[in-house]
Amino acid sequence: MPRLKHSIVAELPEPERLDVAQLARDCASGACDLVAVVGPTASGKTRCAVRLAERLGGEILSADSRQVYRGMDIGTGKDLAEYGSVPYHLIDIAEPGTQYNVWQYQQDFARAWADIRARGAVPVLCGGTGMYVNAVTRGYDFSEKVPLSAARERNSGRADLPQRPFFIGTLVDRDTRNARIDARLDARLQEGMVDEIRGLLARGVPAEALLAYGLEYKFVTLYIQGKLTYDQMRTQLATAIHQFAKRQMTWWRGMERSGVRIHWVEPDAI
Length: 270
Prior knowledge:
The chain is of the alpha/beta class. The protein is built from ten helices and six strands.
């Protein structure tokens, strides 16, 4: 008999009930110097971070490697209206077509984090770029010319970076997450994501740069170049985002295995 292949779905962590009042006291006392909201794409991170910032008197620090670029709005899902009156930082700080790396992010974060705390507000980190999150919460040392893998292993304990972060993970089951990804992708296509990327190309942003700026920019650029049909682009892009979300969740669970405590919550319960 042929062997049957069984798909193995990792169990989700149990959701916690977050004591926001206690978290506020910890932020006020210095027991927590950064609230970090992490999780896979389409899990409700921004909504969760905004609600926490409103309740804690906070400001949001983005940890998204693509939202740093100006004019890349629909494809990166900036959703700036969702922030409401909550101040945000580290969005629209680089020009598309230029290189922006994790070392630059660490420096920009350190300045914004210090400024927020100096004004008596609570810094709330929000994003899905795991390397950015680790660089600022584990103090990666980029001061010497060493391979990135080596920098990952060295926590510099820098005083200009958080020492007592409190991690919150946004929890959503796989089927719901994939359905949200599909609905969000269709909405972005209807909102003009293809035209946004045509505009970037017309402004002189190289196609090679767009191909490296993430899944939406890669697959839509291939469609504009005539290498994919519209239907192929949409189908392949949706599948790639599903896979990306799974890898993100693997990253966060890996952080837990390395000793980082993540408090998993259902975003609507905040």
